[in-house]
Design a protein that fits this description.
It is a single chain. The protein has 612 residues and is α/β, with parallel strands linked by helices. The chain contains 19 helices and 20 strands. 38% of the residues lie in helices and 15% in strands. The protein has an 11-stranded mixed β-sheet with strand order 4-5-10-12-11-13-14-17-18-19-20, with helices on both faces. A 3-stranded mixed β-sheet has the order 2-3-6, with no helix packed on it. Strands 1-8 form a two-stranded parallel ribbon. Residues 463-470 have low confidence and may be disordered.
């Protein structure tokens, strides 16, 4: 009998300890506040004290009730200590010094200095009226004037976007960026989110400036997610090198790319489906009109973007609304120049069809009904609005046609792609030798067998694989290579050829550097080009910092002159008509043959057939 009681006690202690460890992990991944840890400690201490009298009783129902109460108490603890929403400060310095007053069209404002006072940061500047109420799904309206001096020392809330919960977001940071500081109290928050999000941020070298070149950056996130406060987008490092950096938020998902015929009819411009793009152009217009107040040159603006931000840059380059607002473009890992773009672009009819399904989803019979749906509900629509369209206003025709007519806006282009662009996007797709050709049909149609012969089935390259567990099979690596080329590098191959044929200077790169963070997968080049390795410095070594210095040099030189080359940098040759050579950015920095050249030529065949 005594032995049986001992076994029960041991089982209880083991279960108690395992539960405590599991719940501690949940609290940490959920970024719960310190109160959660305190309340959890109280719950566990109470349970431990009561275990002799309750948890080990022979009465099954009493034990069951006790366990239910115990688990309910833990759930309540998790709920009560959930991280609060928070707007992030423009700089990390404690009690930063305010800048001098800057006067823009809407009023006076101040920013804050970085700790060493080398850079001035102005965060949360409104560039358009809040797109709420009757302004939901309308062209961005001018920002309202304000009285007094506006303190622009805090990033505005990010745009409305669906999420997978705090725990999943934390796991994504761990898996992708290896960005996790256990038991830190500095991350016990979630960034605030609002439909009122049309704000921009400015980083400038400290002091009086005149005619300083400007980089205007559009963030990525599949047009459905993202925030201007992300460490990868911080403009401080480039500002230290003598340029002004601006980034902007824009409407995302159903708020930014919803399309409906009734909306087109009520628009004075007959537009629908491109509200996020119109926001970007409105922000660019604001910068063009106001950047001189910060010491910037409105005639020396370079637009830049990565991923969906790069596709957006491409759209701005063909938009008649943006003509004269900028000179040059930097595009990283995306574009919409293909005759049939693989992503970030759709036909107007498909956009309208989805718009009608969303009306039905929310039981709306009119646009007014849908405008009355709270943003917190609408953001969770089951339909993904992640693509621009030809609306006849912001985009007048398929983008490649604008290039063929030489009516594009950019005077020079710096663009490129990474080695393993698609690995995250095909993470759960199982591809083997048996279904390899079938999988390729979704990429190149009737040319799948030809592509399979060019790129025979091969497994993932384990040296660079980002997968937590092995996915796919003996053809997964080859499939990812073809998918990376189609979804990402092909758009740059095509964009480069179009511009070179128009006599426009183009510089194309190929990022290959492996590291402890995103590696050379999609987005891996961003911390290098924008000088933000320190945000995840435990993932990088001296060779990464050396490459970052080189890439920042190229980017800054291009913003200043339209040519990335400069003293101390390896020569970056202009692209040729066939777009056959690119600059490798990795352990080696030198010109090389485009590794996807033969793949791109097969994609060309598929693309040409798509418009017949």
């Amino acid at each position: 009998m005594e032995s049986k009681k001992s076994r029960i006690k041991i089982k209880f202690v083991v279960a108690f300890v395992l539960t405590a460890i599991a719940f501690a992990a949940v609290l940490e991944l959920g970024r719960n506040t310190i109160w959660g840890w305190c309340l959890a400690l109280c719950v566990f201490v109470t349970a431990f004290v009561l275990h002799k009298n309750v948890f080990t009783k022979r009465n099954f129902f009493l034990r069951l009730l006790a366990y239910i109460v115990f688990l309910a108490a833990l759930a309540g603890t998790f709920k009560l200590s959930a991280p609060a929403e928070r707007q992030l400060p423009a700089v990390q310095a404690k009690d930063p010094i305010a800048t001098d007053i800057v006067t823009v069209q809407e009023g006076e404002l101040t920013g804050v200095f970085t700790e060493d006072q080398a850079v001035e940061v102005y965060a949360g500047i409104p560039y358009a009226a809040p797109p709420v109420g009757d302004l939901r799904w309308k062209e961005p309206q001018p920002a309202e004037a304000w009285e007094g001096v506006r303190a622009c020392d805090t990033f505005a809330p990010r745009s409305m976007q669906a999420g997978n919960g705090v725990i999943m977001e934390t796991l994504t940071q761990i898996v992708g960026y290896h960005n996790f500081k256990p038991f830190s109290l500095k991350d016990n928050y979630v960034e605030a989110m609002s439909e009122d999000s049309l704000y921009l941020n400015v980083w400038k070298p400290a002091g009086d400036l005149k005619d300083c070149p400007v980089l205007f950056f559009i963030h990525g996130g599949s047009l459905t997610s993202g925030s201007t406060s992300y460490s990868e987008y911080n403009g401080e490092a480039l500002a230290r090198k003598g340029i002004i950096v601006v980034n902007c938020a824009y409407r995302l998902g159903v708020f930014g790319y919803y399309a409906n015929e009734a909306l087109a009819k009520e628009s004075p411009n007959g537009t629908t489906g491109n509200y996020g793009l119109l926001d970007q152009i409105a922000a660019l217009q604001w910068v063009h009109d106001n950047i001189a107040a910060f010491g910037g040159d409105p005639n020396q603006i370079t637009i830049a973007g990565e991923s969906a931000g790069s596709s957006s840059v491409n759209a701005v380059c063909v938009s008649p609304l943006a003509k004269g607002l900028f000179r040059r473009a930097i595009a990283e890992s995306s574009g919409i120049t293909a005759k049939k773009p693989y992503h970030t672009f759709r036909t107007l009819q498909s956009a309208l069809d989805m718009g009608q399904k969303i009306m039905e989803e929310f039981g709306a019979v009119s646009i007014d009904d849908l405008r009355n749906v709270p943003a917190e509900e609408l953001v969770n629509t089951q339909f993904t609005n992640s693509a621009m369209t030809v609306d006849g206003y912001a985009i007048s025709e398929q983008p490649y046609l604008t290039y063929l007519k030489k009516q594009n806006n950019e005077e020079a282009l710096l663009n490129g792609f990474n080695v393993h662009e698609a690995e995250y996007f095909s993470f759960m797709q199982k591809v083997t030798s048996d279904n390899y050709v079938d999988a390729l049909e979704n990429i190149v149609g009737d040319h799948a067998a030809e592509m399979a012969e060019l790129v025979p089935p091969a497994p993932l390259d384990k040296a660079y694989s980002l997968a937590i567990v092995e996915q796919g099979g003996d053809a997964k690596g080859s499939f990812d290579r073809v998918l990376s080329a189609a979804w990402f590098s092909y758009s740059h191959y095509n964009w480069t050829r179009l511009l070179v044929n128009n006599g426009v200077p183009v510089y194309e790169y190929y990022f290959t550097k492996h590291n402890g963070s995103l590696g050379n997968a999609h987005g891996g080049e961003m911390p290098y080009a924008y000088g933000n390795l320190d945000a995840h410095k435990w993932c990088y070594d001296d060779s990464d910092y050396t490459l970052s210095d080189i890439m920042m040099g190229y980017w800054v030189n291009f913003v200043k002159t339209g040519n990335p080359n400069g003293e101390g940098l390896p020569t970056w040759e202009l692209a040729d008509k066939g777009a056959t050579r690119v600059l490798e950015l990795g352990n080696t920095v030198a010109m090389c043959k485009d590794p996807n050249l033969d793949i791109n030529r097969i994609i060309d065949l598929y693309q040409n057939e798509s418009v017949k």
